[in-house]
Amino acid sequence: MALWLMIFRKMANNKWLQLNLWFGLTVCVALFSSMPLYSHAILQRTLQKELQQVQSLSVTYPGFVRIATSVSSSTMDRKTAQAIERADRFVQTIPKRMGLQALSFYRQRSTQKMKVYGADASQQEKRAQKTNGSFKSLTDMEKRVRLIDGRMPSVRTDGVFEALVTQSFLFKAKRELGEELIAESPDEVKYRVVPVGIMETNPMADPYLPFLTSKDADGFLIPFEQFEREFTRGGKAGVSDLEWRLAMDYTQLNIDRIGVFLQADRDIRRYFAGRLGVAEVNIPASKTVVTYQGKQEKLDVMLLSLYSPVMLMLVFYLYMTANLIIERQKTEISVLRSRGASRIQIMTAYALESMLLGLGALAAGPFLGVLFTRLLGASNGFLEFVQRSALEVTLTGSAYRMAAAAVGGAILLILIPAFLATRVSIVAHKQQAARLTKLPFWHKTGIDILLVCLSGYLLYNFNVRQEDLKRLALNADALQSDPLLFLMPALFALGAGLLVLRVYPWFIRFVYWAGRRWWPPALFHTLIQISRSSGQYLTIMVFLIMTAATGLFSANAARTINDNMESKIQYAVGADIALTTRWESDAPPSAAYGSVQQPRTGEEFAATRRVRYVEPPFKPFQDLPGVEAAARVFKKEKVAYAAGRNNKTGNTTLFGIDTMDFGKTAWMKEDLLDHHINRYLNLIAPNPRAVLVSRSLADAAKIKPGDPIRLSWDGLDEAAFTVYGIVDYWPSWNPLPTGEDGTNREGAPLPHLVVGHLNTIQDRLAAEPYEVWLKLKDGATSQQIYDRLEKLRTPVTSLRDAKQELIRSKSDPFRLAINGVMTLGFVISMLISFFGFLLFWVLVLSGRTLQYGMLRAMGISFPQLIGMLVGEQLLTSGAAVVIGVLIGNLVSEMFVPLFQMSFATREQVPPFEIVHRLADYLKLYGIVSFTLAIGLLILGFRLGRIRIAQALKLGEE
C-alpha cells in the first residue's frame, strides 16, 4: 500500500508531465490500432463495391453459387442413389463452409432426353414427331413457377405422371392441355404423362434465384418428391443431370474470412470433380475475392512504413517526456539508492507507474484510432478532405492486440531513463549536476552520420534497382510500393537534422564572436545562452526539423503521386468523355460495328468490295446539356505510309480531327510539347493537306517539316499530305513501344503517329467510324450525359469517362492510405511538436525564474525580456523550421523520384514528373507558424506572471 501511495504522490507532483506522457502513449496506441482498423475497413468497403459491380456488369447476383453435374452411371443403382444423397448433404453444408447465410436455395433434377408424342398418335405421326423432352423436378415448385392455365400436378398411383409444361413445348407436342402424352426413353421404356398446367417464370417468387422456364423449355416438370421416389431411388429412368443453386448473402463476406471463402470454393470443386460425372461449378464472386488474398498484409506493411516518420517522432517525444520526469526525480532516486533501496524496487515502482499510464492509453487510444481511421477514409490528397461515405469501423481483437503491443514497447522505452538513473549514486548525481553540459549522446555515438550514410546507401540501391527495371523492361506492381520508400526519407531527415545541429552551435558562436562588440544586451545574453547550452535545445529542434521536413516531403510525394496518376488517366482518355456509337453500313451481319479501328468486315467480303458507312449526325452531341465542347476524333491503326528520300514505308496510327473543335475539347498536359498544342493546331488549320507526325516517324523516315508523306489502308489509293510539324505526344496516343500482347516492351518498334484533318481523310481516303470526345462544363456530371444519351436512344458501343476513372483511382485502398497517412502523420507531428514545444519551454522558464527575476531587478524591462525570448525562439525554433524546410526540399529531390517504381514507368504516359505546388508550401508554413505563435503567446503570458520579489527571495535562500 505504501508503494502505491508513493506512486500516486509522484504522479500528482508531476501531473502535467504525466499528462503529456499519457498523451504520447495514447497517440502511439491510436496509430498502431488504426493500422488494422483502416486496412480492414477500406478493403471491406472496396470488396463490397467490387462485388456490387459484378452484378451491374454481368447481371449476376454476387452471392450466386451454381453446381451442375452429369450422372455418368448408366443405371440408377443403390450406389448412385447414395452418391446423390451425399452430394445433397454436402451442398447443404456450403453456407457454413463459406461462413455466409443462404438467402435462397433450390435443387433441380432431370432425366435423359426422351421422345415425346401423343398417346393417340399414329405410327406415321410417331415417326415424324421430332419433339424430345425429359422429366424434371424442382424443390419448392409451387412457389417458383406461375400458372398460366390449368392446375398444379398431383401424385397419382395409376402409373400416370401429371406435369407442368411450357406453352412452347405443348405446341411442339401438338396436343392440348389434359391430353395424354407418351415419353419414350432410348431403351424403349414408355411413360404416360398428362400435362395439367402451363407454367412460366415467376419473377416475383425469388429475386435472387428465379427459375427460368425458358432456359430449358422442353420437358415435364413433376413434383420433386415424386421424381426422387420414381427415378432417383426407384431407378425407373436414368437421372442424367443434377443442379444446385444457392444465393449467399455476400454482404456478410468479411475481409478476414476471405481464406475461408476461397477454401470453401476449392472444397466444392474438389468434391464434385469426377464424383458423379462431368461437373461445372460457377461462383462469380471468387474471381473478385481471390484478388484480395494477401492484400491486407501488404496494406498493413505499407501503413507501418507510412507511419514510420511520425513513429520516430513519437519515440523522441516519449523518451523526452520520460527523461524530463526522471531529471526532476534524479535526486529522489539517488537518495533512495543511498538509503538502501535496490534497483529492482525502484524499477518496480516506475514500471507500475508506467503501467497505469499505459492502461489509461489502452482505454482511450483505440477509440482515437477509430477517429484516425475515418479521417484516413475521407482524405483526397495532402491536407485535402472530401465528403466521402464514412468507413464502417469496428474495434476488433487485432486492433487491441496491436494496441497492447504498442503500449508494451512504449513502456519499455520510457523505462530506459529510469533504469539509467538508478545506476547513479547521490555523490555521482551531484557531480554530474555540477559539470557543464556534455556532448549529446546522438553526436557522441555518431548516429547522425550513420543515418545519413544508411539512407544514402539505400537510395543508391533503389536507383540501381530502378535502372534494372528500365533496362529489363520490368514493371513494379500498381501502387504497392516498397516500405523503405517511406522509411528512407524519415531516416535521412533525422540524420541530416542531427548532422546540421552538430555544427549549428559553432555557427551561433561565430555570430556571437563576429558582433560581440555591437550586440545589444538582450541579444548578447541570448547568443551566449544558446552557444553554451546547445544540447538543451537539441530535442525540440529535432522535433521541428522532422515536422517541417517530413511534412514537406509528404506534401510533395502525395502531390506527385496524385498528379501523375490523374494525368495518366486524363491523357489516356483524351477528354472528359470519349465514346463511340454504332454506324449504319452495308456490311454483312458478321461484321463488327462500333469499333473505332474498323477491321475488314470479313476476309471473303473484303476481297470483293469495301464496307460503306453512313455517318450519324454529330450535332446532337454538341447540344447535349452540360457539354462545353465536342470533337470528332478518327483513329486508325496500321495505316501504311511512304515518306522520305528513300521512300521509307511502314505502319502508323492515323488521327483525323477538326482543329477548332479538338483544341476546345482535348486535354493536354503542359510542357509535353515544345509549344502549346493550340499552336500546332493553328499551324495545320489553313492547309487541308497539312499533317503533324510523331518524332519517331520523323526519325525513322528521315523527314522534316515541308516533306511529303503518302497514306493509305486496306487497298485504298494513296493520298498525299505535307508534314507541317513534329510532336512527341498527342492526347490518347501512347508513344512507348508495345509488344504483340499490347503491353509495353523494350526492344519493340516505336509506334508512329500522323495527325491530319478529318474532312480531308474522309474525302480522299474513306469515311469510317470515329470517337466522339466531350468536354463537360464546370459543375456538369457524367450522369447527365448518360441519361440524355439513353433518352435519345443513341447506340453507344464503347465509353471511357475520365472523371469516373479518377474517382475509382482515388478510392484505391493504397492511394487512400498514402494520402490519408501523410496528412494524418503531419497533423500528429504538429500536435507532438506543439505539446513538446510547450512542455520544453514551460520547464525552461520554470528553471529560469531566478535568472529572469534578477535580470528584471538589474533593470531589464519586460519588453526586453520578451525580446530575449523571441530572439531565443528565432535562433532555435525558427532556425529549426528553416533547416527543416531546406532538408525537406533536399529529401523531396532525392527520394520522390523513387516513386516511379510504383507507376510501372514503362507504361507511364505522360512521363513521371515531380510536382511542387505553392499551395502545399503555404499550408505547411501556415500551420507551423500558427503553432509556434500560439506557443509563444502562452510562454509570454507565463513570463509576465513571474514575480521579481519571489524570485530574488528564492535566490537569497
Dominant shape: flat
Task: Report the major sheet.
Answer: 11 strands, mixed
Helix content: 40-55%
- Unreliable spans: 473-480, 590-608, 739-745
Gyration radius (Cα, Å) is 39 Å
Tell me the strand percentage band. 15-25%
What do the pLDDT scores average to?
80
What structural category do the secondary elements indicate? alpha+beta
Number of helices: 32
How many E-type strands? 24
Kindly report how far apart the N and C termini lie: 36 Å
Care to describe what's here?
The chain has 957 residues and is of the alpha+beta class. Helices cover 54% and strands 16% of the residues. Strands 1, 2, 3, 4, 5, 6, 7, 8, 9, 10 and 11 form an eleven-stranded mixed sheet that branches. Strands 17-18-22-19-21-20 form a six-stranded mixed barrel, surrounded by four helices. Strands 12-13 form a two-stranded antiparallel ribbon. Helix 2 (15-58) packs antiparallel against helix 11 (295-338), helix 11 (295-338) packs across helix 17 (484-514) and helix 12 (343-377) packs antiparallel against helix 13 (397-421). Residues 473-480, 590-608 and 739-745 have low confidence and may be disordered.
What is the strand and helix layout of this fold?
Layout: H1 2-13, H2 15-58, E1 64-70, H3 78-92, H4 94-98, E2 102-111, E3 114-118, H5 123-128, E4 132-138, H6 141-144, E5 145-150, E6 160-165, H7 167-173, E7 181-184, E8 190-201, E9 219-223, H8 224-232, E10 239-248, H9 258-272, E11 279-282, H10 285-289, H11 295-338, H12 343-377, E12 379-381, E13 384-385, H13 397-421, H14 426-434, H15 441-444, H16 447-471, H17 484-514, H18 521-532, H19 538-573, E14 577-581, E15 584-585, H20 603-608, E16 613-614, H21 619-622, E17 627-643, E18 648-657, H22 659-665, H23 677-684, E19 690-694, H24 695-701, E20 708-712, E21 719-727, E22 753-757, H25 758-764, E23 771-776, H26 782-791, E24 796-801, H27 802-810, H28 813-847, H29 849-857, H30 862-895, H31 918-944, H32 948-956
Parallel strand pairs: 4-9, 6-8, 18-22, 19-21
Antiparallel strand pairs: 1-10, 1-11, 2-4, 2-10, 3-4, 3-7, 5-8, 7-8, 12-13, 14-23, 14-24, 15-16, 17-18, 17-20, 17-23, 19-22, 20-21
Helix pairs in contact: 1-12, 2-11, 2-12, 2-13, 2-28, 11-13, 11-14, 11-17, 11-19, 11-28, 12-13, 12-28, 16-17, 17-18, 17-19, 17-30, 18-30, 19-27, 19-28, 19-30, 19-31, 22-23, 28-31, 29-32, 30-31
